[in-house]
Amino acid sequence: AALENGDSLELVLGATELTVTQGGRITTLDMGAAPFVRDGHTYIPVRAAAEALGLESNMGRRRRRRFIKSV
């Protein structure tokens, strides 16, 4: 995924590494889980992707929902 400013995230199906490009600097992070496809839908470790973009990620208490907001 590429942002307007040229920063990007690269996720590979089946791989737990996330490659982040910010301001020309490349960083590789371990997401702890790999993206996968099920029934035609792609699922990604949203917490890792959100935090790599500098967003705050919190899990809801009652339901298994992830809330993301800018910091």
What does this structure look like?
The protein is 10% helix and 45% strand. The chain has 71 residues and is mostly beta strands. It is built from one helix and seven strands, in the order βββββαββ. A hairpin with a 2-residue loop joins β4 and β5 (41-43). The two termini are 20 Å apart. The mean pLDDT is 86. The longest helix is centred in the last third of the chain and has 7 residues, at 46-52.
Please mark out the parts with pLDDT under 50 across 5 or more consecutive residues, or reply none: none
Shape: globular
Largest sheet: 3 strands, antiparallel
Order of strands, widest sheet = 1-2-3
The helical percent reads under 10%
Q: Would you tell me the overall average pLDDT?
A: 86
Number of DSSP strands? 7
- Overall structural class, as computed from helix and strand content, comes to mainly beta
What letter string, H or E per element, gives the SSE order? EEEEEHEE
Strand content: over 45%
Euclidean distance between termini CA atoms: 20 Å
- The helix tally amounts to 1
Q: C-alpha Rg, in Å?
A: 13 Å
Write a brief caption for the model.
With 71 residues, the protein is mainly beta.
